[in-house]
Design goal:
- This protein folds into 2 domains: 90 residues, Multidrug-efflux Transporter Regulator, Chain: A, Domain 2 (Orthogonal Bundle); 158 residues, 3-Layer(aba) Sandwich (Mannitol-specific EII, Chain A), CATH 3.40.930.10.
- The protein has 12 helices and 7 strands.
- By secondary structure, the chain is of the alpha/beta class.
- The two termini are 14 Å apart.
Amino acid sequence: MLNVHLFLNCQFFQSLVILPHHFLDLTDIIFESHFMPQSKLGLKEAAEYLDLSVKDLQFLVEKGKVPHEMERNKFVFRKGVLRDWANQFLFSDTTNLSGKKHHGSFKLWSKANLIEKKLGDWLLNESMEPFLPARTKPSVLRELVNVAAKTGMLSDPTKLLGLLRNREELGPTGLKNGIAIPHPRIHTPDLCYESFMVIAKVPGGIPFGSLDGENSDLFFMPCAQTEEDHIFMLGRLTSMIKKTDLCQSLRDAKDAEEMISYFQACEEKLI
């Protein structure tokens, strides 16, 4: 489970001021919270949604670290706002990719809860692209969607491309060390038939708004049918990037089969 004391001092909250362009505009969250209908969750439901214990979530809420409301003296969470908070937190955790040990690092989602899931099981030969034919950011997004469409799992390529563009307008998803994780902000069951992930390499890389100003050459695109799957994908991927040699292994892979094999091997080391 989450180490809540480390959480309170984690780089995420400090980095909101330092790196504002990599996070959703808070006014957007506030607007969505007050003017758009959303499902509400109680404390237990929210804990299950985030895969946290009720005790840990309550502690964080009482410290004012998780967005919530009060109704009849009970904590209430808007699912959409909670989704954005989780996405921001997980995405920010991938920005610290210098390869050095960080004493404040932690895992939000426990190994025990996720051990029955394997992200490697959601990889398909068709969703691996060793040589993505793209040289600009718009063409990368288009080609990533084309790769996703080839799997037969994507129900609406046009919608996905639009969601990716909208997300990039909010802030670039390029990180450090040549890594980028373009992803839609909203996930609905009608977007894809099953959850899967696209991994693509662009030899030489392209400018993608990375944190270190370097080109991005390794792209991960989660295609989640549900928000829960999306959170799991980002959580597991974050841990693999930071704690295994996943990225270098993928760069060394010669074809789709090797990409999947190396990915699964790294995941086994993690869990």
